[in-house]
Amino acid sequence: MQRCEVCGDPSPRRPCLRCGGRIARDELLAPAPGGALAELVNGLRLALRGAVLTLRTPRLLALVVLPLLITVALFAALATLIVEYRDLMRPELATAWPWGLDRLRGFVAAAAQWLGVLAAIGVAAVSTILLSQVVNAPFLEWLSQAVESIVVGQPDATPLTLARLWRTGVLPILQAAGMAIVQAAFGLLFLLLSLLAVTAPIAAVGGVWLVALTLADVAIARKGFPVRERFRRVRRSLPLYLGLALPFFLAPFLLPLGVAGATLAELRERCAERPRRDAA
Asked: CA 163 from chain center: how many Å?
């Protein structure tokens, strides 16, 4: 499939109808790639730059607020159900305790109940993050597309065909569902690793990597790239994407604010590859 060298859109026409073959706002993609430590810092810089751009642009902010509201509502509904049916988590201590320990017996039962509630809320939080990828996928795709339009200086002029509707609308949602399953498996693995002091740092880095994978997915999903391209993109520019993902690993419910930064990172990396492609 022939793609535009600037934006990656699968268009055979030159100049590309999506970007016109140019970047209108180079300052949003600066600085040029450097060493590993510099790229880690650049990832943080792009995350902040994208968040500021989103907060200052009403049409971008609306596309962030809507998925955030959906995510919060989903988590609130799950948490309400857990608290409402918390009595189901109270253990039945059938064996009578020695005389005088009735109060301790009640305390142990209540503590076990609330530990179960806290564990269930933790599972609900992880489930919400995974489900939100499917629920919020259309909003985040539109957000990424709007940010790209700002960078290239023009709206998408590509005609809407059934093939494009499938690639930019339906396929990203299906891929988001598949990615959610993959990330759930990795998330469970990292959760188990986090229980051990020796492997906890590996679990933390793995968690940041999962967030980076999510952001890379949003930035390229609507362009019809295969799922393996998400992994390849993050692996090839790992320090950059780890820096980009770190703030949203610490505050996962703010993940939509990272979409703009991920879109900037995708365009930046693609433009950086152009000299190497031209030389080849």
From this structure: 26
Dihedral Cα 157, 53, 6, 215, nearest 10 deg:
-100
The structure tokens 């600066």 sit at 30
Answer yes or no: is pLDDT of 219 > 80. yes
List of residues 6+ apart from 187 with CB closer than 8 A: 126, 130, 207, 210
Say which amino acid occupies 96.
A
- Give the Cα separation of 138 and 131 in Å (integer): 13
Dihedral class, residue 214 (left if φ above 0, else alpha if ψ from -120 to 50, else beta): alpha
Helix axes 58-84, 102-135, angle to 10 degrees: 150
At 149, list the tokens: 């339009």
Flag the least confident range among 63-67, 126-130, 172-176. 172-176
Question: Can you tell me the distance from the alpha carbon of 279 to that of 265, in angstroms, rounded to the nearest whole number?
Answer: 22
Does residue 28 register a pLDDT over 80?
yes
